[in-house]
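Dear colleagues,

As part of the handover before I leave the project, I'm documenting each prediction I ran so the next person doesn't have to rerun anything. This entry is a single chain, and its sequence is reproduced below.
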Amino acid sequence: MRQIFAILFALTVVGFTASLPAAPYAGSFAVKVLPIVLLFAAAVAARPFRGKFALCAAIVFSGAGDVILDLSFQGSFIFGLAAFLIAHLWYIGLFGLDIAWNKLRPLATLPAILYPAGMAVFLWPHLGGLKIPVAVYVAVIATMLVFAINRRSAGKSVLFGAIFFLASDSILAINKFYSPQPWARYAIMATYYLAQYLIVSGILREKNSQ
């Protein structure tokens, strides 16, 4: 990723984070999604590579999820969840292009399955009518993390990005369904932006080195 994109990304993340005490405010969705727009621009500007469309699609649906959740209309959570689910499916497709199932990685793969499953079981009594959508989402993000763990590429950026994505979603779920905390939105956005940056920059760095 070009340095200018990284600098602008950091500045826009700091800008939105600083504005969180006033959120939601008029146009806050645009400020929130701007860092993701920059990641999309960096991906589009990269030279052609196998999986570029999948990466761009994952970023687009992530940005759509950001906007939908910020608008907070009736049903926005389920629509935002759907947008991020589709984003994760694109990430799974992208990671699948570089998959190399390794018998030496089950110890890393197992927690990637057990932790999301345990989180779903923990939150299950609090999910109300969202039990099935949340269960599907948990299965998809767990699959995304498993694919990230089993990629052939040696770079760890994508893997850590997937882990931070799971961390962000975990904080969001606990805050929404179990115990709301005033600090949660800062932690959610910090881990989310870091996740997206690590995944996108990691993929682009790998492709540029090939």
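The helical segments are 3-19, 28-45, 52-71, 76-96, 106-123, 131-149, 157-178, 184-209. The chain has eight helices and no strands.

All the best with the project,
I.
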